[in-house]
Design brief:
Length: 320
Amino acid sequence: MASIIFQKAGWSLQITRTSRNFAVTFTTALPRRSHHRTIASEASNSLRSSRGNLFRRRTQHDTSLAYSRFKNVFQAQHARAATTATAQNDPGQQPLPASDRIQRATEEAINTEDLTAGLSDKPIVLDGQSRQVDWTRSFHGLSTEAFSKEAAEALLAPIGLDDIEVKPDGIVYLPEIKYRRILNKAFGPGGWGLAPRGETIVTAKAVTREYALVALGRLVSVARGEQDYFSPEGIPTAVEGCKSNALMRCCKDLGVASELWDPRFIRKFIAEYAKEVWVEHQQTQKRRKIWMRKDDQIRYPFKLYTPPSQGSTRQNNSKY
């Protein structure tokens, strides 16, 4: 981060440059009106107006001059940094001229990408003469024939009760890695894949993209994945989670883990294998109820909290 401050009698300008943007802070004070002489109302207004216009013109000129100086200094710093990096990486390479180094450093600073504006990862669209299938818009092989008996048995096999997980809000789910294991067992590693059918869309809080599940050269299903994120640094991880979410949704059409979409199975599993407990956050001391498997343990940052019994609570309340 670079920062430069310019000050004069009536104003001050602070310009800060980061890796992504400029931050400009401008402070000014209007010239004070003299109290030692009395001027007619119209003449006084005209005089103040002319003084204000003159002050604004001078301020605009000084501000543009200060910004120009700061830009030159920033470009020079980037040019020196680029020259040093080039000399360290390849001592035998001739350094670029000063004008080229300044232009390259300026372009790199301006073209710094912000992931919140989108990833620009639109899939490659094949031309009509290509022999490959364009999975961005093709439905090649959809419902042409059933898969083999061995593949169908692997896809439709009941999921193990030990593989099902429970989220704190009570939602049951199958980890995404186990969907991949089922597909590898049915089609073999390399016999299936996810093909993006559109560009990644980055909103203020989530990432979404449409994928196509292709197995043995045939389109099986199309679904859109989504994943929330909390800071721009978490967008790459959210993109991977979006892909896994799309895979889970595509596997519904193959019957993989179909029990987890059956309300009766969910209610029975929650009643037999899940429980709701009180926990306390070890850092914030906030208490709440969460769902978990009966054979699972409470993990950090939570710990088990035992609320007071109703009888003791009533006795304590009767004292007040």
